[in-house]
Design goal:
Keywords: Membrane, Transmembrane, Transmembrane helix. InterPro entries: SGNH_hydro, SGNH_hydro_sf. It comes from Kibdelosporangium persicum. With about 260 residues, the chain is α/β, with parallel strands linked by helices. The chain contains eleven helices and six strands. Strands 1-3-2-4-5-6 form a six-stranded mixed beta sheet, sandwiched between helices. The longest helix is centred in the C-terminal third of the chain and has 23 residues. It starts with 6 loop residues before the first helix and ends with a helix.
Length: about 260
């Protein structure tokens, strides 16, 4: 996910509001380097399990998953634990329809590169789209206003193509324990600012925002060793299952 790349920019931006001394800037910079070393870099691609998940009645529901490594399922132990697979099977169970899953999400995606995923999706429009994006915008120097505006444009494109769109807003990066304090608080504040702006942009574009950070961060904090993968940044299969349980209801509501 490119964690902490450009985090000094985030620290300076927040410090411009709250007051960031030279000593604090130096501390945050050093902590960013240390956390990057502790977390490391993910080199393996997520599993893929796109295809038809069979139900019993009605037309096939075309379900697309777009976004970054969290949408792609980086950290899941196997294909059965990917968020797209968990949600596709949940949709089959809840709606009774067969579901065709297509995953456009890519590790490292930002809201700028997300545009190419939407280009692919609208060429064969889904009935339902899940978007998880924003974490890399926090660590990649993108202004909150710019990030949210770009997301709103792409959600509107998906809606115009006929898709119901559910967006999981920026997760709570403050749950990542290898990031030391006070840097963790900086990352958390930046992510919350983005999630709030994303919510407004998604609503204006006709999508359904889900504040995933608010809904699951406490559980991830309490069960850190159980819900995170070995890289200590991305969820493992159990973590994705917990998040998918939260996302299934708004996805079902969006297509009823």
């Amino acid at each position: 996910m490119g964690i902490l790349r450009g985090i000094r920019v985030a620290a300076v931006a927040l410090g411009g509001v709250g007051g960031l001394s030279g000593a604090m800037y130096g501390l945050l910079t050093g902590q960013g380097r240390r956390a990057r070393t502790l977390i490391g870099r993910s080199t393996s691609d997520p599993h893929r399990a796109d295809g038809l998940y069979e139900g019993g009645v009605g037309s096939v529901l075309k379900f697309a998953v777009l976004g970054d490594s969290l949408a792609a399922g980086l950290g899941a132990e196997n294909a059965e634990e990917l968020p797209g697979v968990l949600l596709a099977r949940g949709l089959v169970e809840e709606t009774g329809r067969s579901v065709r899953l297509t995953t456009y999400a890519r590790v490292g995606a930002t809201t700028r590169t997300f545009i190419s995923q939407v280009d692919q999706a609208v060429a064969d429009p889904p009935d339902l789209a899940l978007v998880i994006i924003g974490g890399n915008d926090v660590t990649g120097k993108m202004r909150v206003r710019t990030s949210a505006a770009l997301l709103g444009i792409e959600v509107a494109r998906l809606r115009h193509a006929g898709a119901a769109v559910v967006v999981a807003t920026c997760p709570d990066l403050g749950t990542i324990r290898p990031i030391p304090q006070p840097l963790r608080s900086v990352v958390r504040q930046w992510g919350r600012m983005l999630a709030k702006a994303q919510r407004q942009a998604v609503l204006r574009a006709g999508g359904v925002p889900v504040p995933i950070g608010d809904l699951i961060s406490s559980e991830f904090h309490l069960r850190y060793s159980e819900l995170f993968s070995p890289d200590r940044f991305h969820p493992n299969g159990a973590g994705y299952r917990h998040a998918s349980n939260v996302l299934l209801a708004p996805l079902c509501q969006a297509v009823t």
